[in-house]
């Protein structure tokens, strides 16, 4: 187990995402944007994946895009919230329907070395243990297979975290892992040539309640098992809202997101993996030049 073990209450998280499924697409603007950016990066890699797995596929926007792009591939959507998979089923032509798998990304119900490409957008921050998650990814990837993901770094929702910190000591915002530690976890799982980089994005809101409503619909409100229990008192909520006002700029309230992009390869048989993380430039070059997996 890594030192970055979370205690996400999975039952709660699954319930929250299940409830959010129908409205999710209306608010998941940032998630859709970074998912598209990751698809663009994938264009740089010459891959002919036989099997593609979209991990934490949500309503299946990217799953459908992957199925469109890789017409010869078999595309699998995996999510632990069944209502999310029901949304996925509604997409695309009946010919190109992805296979939907209801399961936990930390315990993939898939055979060893059965997947050529894992795509995971904005989902692995829901792992309780990144080492377990990446070991599972490594296990199901074929040698030479590619893992590509986005997740969020520690500066994500920093204004909300700071505003709550002025009110109480409870944990109100999820804990996000630093990019370097994510890179280390990839290496520990035996994934090769990891490449990580960060992009900062800011959403703006008129009121904190707008942000909180979005987080709720995204299923992304706090489900840490050490979250404060019971209803958050009206007084404390108001105190947090006034504390958030210190961040107001040009009339609106910012909500920062530190978006982490990463990719790594399942080593070819006999490959010894101990490569350090490299920069964005190197990423672009390596993606442009290397045709891993044929
Ligand atoms: C923020 S959404 C991202 C959805 C989609 N990838 C997108 O880009 O819109 C995270 C998704 O991961 C799923 N998820 C969270 N924890 C999971 C777990 N342990 N196993 C499987 N799916 C999980 C949630 O149900 C949700 O659909």
Total helices: the number is 11
Q: Beta-strand percentage? A: 15-25%
Mean pLDDT: 87
The 3D shape can be described as: globular
Question: If you consult CATH, what is the topology?
Answer: Rossmann fold
Query: What's the Cα radius of gyration?
Result: 19 Å
Strand order of the largest sheet: 3-2-1-4-5-7-6
List SSEs in N-to-C order. Answer: HHHEHEHEEHEHHEHHEH
Please tell me the total number of domains. Answer: 1
Bound molecules: S-adenosylmethionine
What's the CATH architecture?
Answer: 3-Layer(aba) Sandwich
Task: Kindly report how far apart the N and C termini lie.
Answer: 34 Å
Top keywords for this entry?
disordered C terminus; 11 helices; alpha/beta; binds S-adenosylmethionine; 294 residues; globular; seven-stranded mixed β-sheet; 21% strand; Rossmann fold
Q: What does this protein look like?
A:
- The protein has 294 residues and is of the alpha/beta class.
- The chain has one domain (10-156, 174-203, 258-289): Rossmann fold.
- The protein is 36% helix and 21% strand.
- It contains eleven helices and seven strands.
- It has helices at residues 10-20, 24-27, 29-43, 61-69, 82-89, 130-140, 158-165, 179-188, 208-217, 234-244, 280-289; strands at residues 51-55, 74-79, 99-102, 115-121, 141-152, 192-205, 253-265.
- Strands 3-2-1-4-5-7-6 form a seven-stranded mixed sheet, sandwiched between helices.
- The longest helix has 15 residues, at 29-43.
- The protein is globular, with a radius of gyration of 19 Å.
- Residues 273-279 and 289-294 have low confidence and may be disordered.
- Bound molecules: S-adenosylmethionine (SAM).
- S-adenosylmethionine binds next to helix 1, helix 3 and helix 4.
